[in-house]
Amino acid sequence: MAPRDTSQRNLEHWSEAKRTEMQAFYTIAAEDYRPLAAARDWGADLRLRATDGHLRLLDVGCGSGRFPAALLAAGLPAAVRDITVAVDLLDPAAFSIVETRAALAAPFKVAAEHEVALQNFDVQDRYDVAWAIHSLYALPLAELPDGVARMVAALRSGGFGAVAHVSAESHYLRFYEAYRATYSPNVAPFTEADEVAAALTAAGADIRVQLLHFRTGSADRTVIESFLQRCAFDDSISLAQMESDGPLAEYLGDCRTPDGSYHFEHEVHLMTWRAREKSAPADGHSSR
Question: Could you tell me if residue 285 is inside a domain?
Answer without folding.
Answer: no
